[in-house]
Specification:
Oligomer: single chain
Order of helices and strands: EEEEEEEEEEE
Strand content: over 45%
Shape: globular
Helix content: under 10%
Distance between the termini: 37 Å
Structural class: mainly beta
């Protein structure tokens, strides 16, 4: 099983980034896919989830700014992040959940001027 996240980087406040996660080794379209993040000194928190049927949930802190999507043909899940704030700075992790839970290595997002 592999979950490979990409797309992190340094962006100014108000800017945008798009994270992608490429999955392999499991039945992607059966799994709920999520993005989590962990800021320095803080616990990992759920950012957004998209179910196997397409249902979506967001953390209150990102509603209206972030959009999660999935492409079952390409086994990818993406997170479009707009209007970024310094408090969005964190390592972002891709997660797959069904009967098992899989984690990818994170990608660092830094929002700073």
């Amino acid at each position: 099983v592999q979950l490979q996240a990409s797309g992190g980087g340094l962006v100014q406040p108000g800017g945008s980034l798009r994270l992608s996660c490429a999955a392999s080794g499991f039945t992607f379209n059966s799994y709920a896919m999520s993005w989590y993040r962990q800021a320095p000194g803080k616990q990992r928190e759920l950012v957004a989830t998209i179910g196997s049927g397409g249902s979506i949930n967001y953390a209150d802190s990102v509603k209206g700014r972030f959009t999660i999507s999935r492409d079952n043909a390409k086994n990818t899940v993406s997170l479009q992040m707009n209007s970024l704030k310094p408090e969005d700075t964190a390592v972002y992790y891709c997660n797959a959940w069904l009967s098992s839970t899989y984690w990818g290595k994170g990608t660092l997002v830094t929002v700073s001027s």
